[in-house]
Amino acid sequence: MFADPKVLKIGHSTLGGDLPSLHRDFAIVIVNHYDTQIGASSLGLKGIGLSSLLERLHCPLHAEIAKSKEVMRSIDWRKR
Questions:
Q1: CA-CA distance, 35 to 48, in Å (whole number)?
Q2: Can you tell me the distance from the alpha carbon of 61 to that of 54, in angstroms, rounded to the nearest whole number?
């Protein structure tokens, strides 16, 4: 799925850490990827963090993501 150019992969703030880590640790190459943080930045939006963008879009997941923000930062994804 990651290498399939017909499938659009959407992530947030993945270019600085997640994608290089997936490639380095698991040899996963992701094609046809859109980073919402880069998109928000290119639009000149202020508050381009995931929580801020979800709040701007009135997404019901905003509150849940805001609560779990610290937990998600410390997860060792290699163990999953």
A1: 11
A2: 7
Residue among 36, 24, 25, 30 nearest 1 (CA): 30
69 token code pair: 């923000």
**What single-letter DSSP state applies at residue 8?**
P
Query: 71: number of CA atoms within 13 Å, CB side?
Result: 5
With a threshold of 0.85, does the pTM exceed it?
no
The per-residue pLDDT for range 16-69, each reduced to its tens digit, is: 888 999 999 999 999 999 999 999 999 999 889 888 888 888 887 777 777 777
Could you tell me the residue ranges of all domains in the chain?
Answer: 9-75
How far is it, in rounded angstroms, from Cα 30 to Cα 8? Answer: 10
